[in-house]
Please model this.
Amino acid sequence: MKNIYIMICMTVACIYLVSCDSLLDVDPSDQYSTETFWKTEEHAKAGLMGCYNALMNWRFSHTMEFDMLTSNAMTYNESNGTQAIGKGEHMSTTYLIELLWKNCFIGIGRTNTFITKVGTVDMDETEKNQMIGEAKFLRAFYYLNLVDKFGGVPLIVEAPNADTQANLPRSSKEEVVSQILIDLDDAIAVLPGSYASADLGRVTKGAALALKARALLYNARWAEAAEIAKQIINSGVYQLFNDYRHFFSEDNKHNSEVIFNVETVIPEYPTDYDLNIWRLNRPAPLKELVDTYLCTDGKSISESSLYDPEHPYENRDPRLLKSIVCIGYQYLGKTITRADVVNTGFGVKKYTSYEDSVSIPLVERSAFNFILIRYAEVLLTYAEAQNEVDGPDDSVYDAINQLRKRPDINMPEVMKGLTQSQMREVIRRERRIELTFEGLYYSDILRWKTAEKENNGMMHDADGADVVKRSFNPERDYLWPIPYNQILLNPNLTQNPNWD
Model:
């Protein structure tokens, strides 16, 4: 797949660049004629890679950026509108809101074009159907990101046509979710379980199942979510990688835990997280997140005798120091001081290629693959959904304990005898810790309806000093506003409640 990305850069991926300012940024404007382009298998491969290429913004803007909207982290400036959303000061013109809408509909436009046009290509029908399955997965992925933040949106499953689509009204959230599940079922039916090395990174059957499980979980369809997650678990295809610190690394691309990722290649499509995360201290973790990590006896810092306020990062869940840079600990071959993590007294270690004990030049170009779905999330999906269906049965404990017993983590197993409500809190904490900075926690607090509590109030740095105030209006903020420019261009788009 990496080789195909390079081909796209050099040749025909630009046929998908969208030029309209409307969403309905769905009509590709290009130097090629679609009538002459969709002829050969190479055209089909290039067209499909254009659909994948729309994922590039998920490397940062639509993943880690979302953690900076929560009590997990903050950004050092107002860029992208991230601070505004976290502070409850966002508007329908806020850049991050407009960007998500635009990028999702660009991806949807590309997948719709591909699905419609590839039928005319002279190639093996089995391979063609598999490629259509990949495109349907991607369309489902883009639509799930939209309904997660905006609720109902225009539902478009045909090739871009500004005359018929530019003024479409919003479909209901239920209608869009139904289409997401149809697309994923279609994909599951035709996608392979794995690929040869040259095609690693393409969508697999496991990825489609995992995205379906996420979609069901996000819509509180507990029994179905548990069933699909269990199917993935029982398949034996995936397992937890034995190194939590380094499963995000260039050396461990396509490791046993990866279900779906964004492929990268230098210099065309680098990740560049080393530069952004460390040199800019962005995101800057907050004390509220750090205090959530348990002590090594499995108890919270308020309950454990192992917690020492004078040495607050000792005897803690190992995922803390594997994910977060803390003052007084080794990183980059030096002892970290406040001057190294100026914003909150914490830095992000997850995603970086640097080591604790080795002093190396700061890297500007990095090329690990950003993981969008991994097996740990599937275990957590199963645990949450099954707990909501039947309470904390043995399979729920087992799913959580697999994460805690990862060889380099080795935390105590969850104590038996919990009520459903108690287990719910355990699972929510585990999702926050295990998946921190992977862009899912903001979605979690929205669907759990806990944002109105967690995202209201002052947030703190390592010293406990006030650094940023979060504000969340439960009458308004569980949905983002439809971007102003889209409503201006399309009078049939109605705004979400209390955003007028």
Notes: Confidence is low (pLDDT under 50) at residues 1-23. DSSP finds 20 helices and ten strands in the chain. The first helix runs from residue 2 to 10. The first strand starts at residue 73 and ends at 74.
